């Protein structure tokens, strides 16, 4: 799909199932289960959508899914069907060497699993020429965990990036290349960031886990993983309003049937109108 003079594609790494309660936070199951029927273990399926932006001869990837390093127990627990990112990039004629930047919204395992892989028993970055970009505050939180945050991070996913000098830590809002910005949102994690890109007046954004799926549009619908919930509320109010007013195409990192679309307001209610990006 064209955005101005640039190309964008949603590249799937696969899917997993998460506890429904952890996706919808304080929203009662009696409400969320009307639209999301859980399996017998109370899990709801979510997609692992990565975004590829091709502009000015650069290939920029946003998030990398869960990758292929999980053991059988974890795979079963989350019903993981992942590790497809590299194969699906090939569909667009791209190989790991072709990726210039990997922007990580945050370092949770379902966003950074595809950053590294085992090659001949050695843990290496999947994209050998890429610079991996993440907020300094997110790196801090991911490498200094506590009892609540520990299970969301797997150090093998991101520590090797530092060892090969492919990691760049950002301090707040940054223009990565012309008209491609990351904006610090906080909320989900201290250093969570969203990505915004503009080409010839057309605008797209990936809000990361500030808006995982379209059903999370109402402000209180946030995950129970959010470490700073009131910050997430502020970020949602601000960015969803802006996206609606400025007609941004939103890419949803975890949407299954609806992966991208625009926001409209009808009778005081914000509606997500999905369109397909291929
Ligand atoms: Zn996520």
What does this structure look like?
There is one protein chain. The protein has a single domain (2-202), classed as Ribonuclease Z/Hydroxyacylglutathione hydrolase-like (Metallo-beta-lactamase, Chain A), CATH 3.60.15.10. The model has no long low-confidence stretch (mean pLDDT 95). Helix content is 20%, strand content 33%. With 278 residues, it is an alpha+beta fold. Strands 1-2-3-4-5-8-9 form a 7-stranded mixed β-sheet. Bound molecules: zinc ion. Zinc ion is lined by residues 108, 110-111, 209, 253-254.
List the helices and strands and how they pair.
Layout: E1 2-3, E2 6-19, H1 20-24, H2 29-32, E3 43-55, E4 58-62, H3 72-77, H4 85-90, E5 101-103, H5 109-112, E6 116-119, E7 122-125, E8 131-135, H6 136-143, H7 159-163, E9 167-170, E10 174-177, E11 180-184, E12 193-199, E13 202-206, H8 229-245, E14 249-251, E15 260-266, E16 269-274
Parallel strand pairs: 4-5, 5-8, 8-9, 13-14
Antiparallel strand pairs: 1-2, 2-3, 3-4, 6-7, 10-11, 11-12, 12-13, 14-15, 15-16
Bound molecules: zinc ion.
Number of helices: 8
Please tell me how large the radius of gyration is: 18 Å
CATH topology: Metallo-beta-lactamase, Chain A
H/E element order: EEHHEEHHEHEEEHHEEEEEHEEE
* Ligands bound to this protein structure: zinc ion
Please state the second-level CATH architecture: 4-Layer Sandwich
> How much helix is in the residues?
10-25%
Beta-strand segment tally: 16
Strand content: 25-35%
Q: Describe the sheet with the most strands.
A: 7 strands, mixed
**CATH class categorisation:** Alpha Beta
Envelope shape = globular
The CATH H-level superfamily is Ribonuclease Z/Hydroxyacylglutathione hydrolase-like
Spatial strand sequence of the major β-sheet: 1-2-3-4-5-8-9
**Quick check: average pLDDT?**
95
Question: What is the number of domains?
Answer: 1
Outline the low-pLDDT stretches: none
Structural class: alpha+beta
What is the straight-line distance between the termini? 6 Å
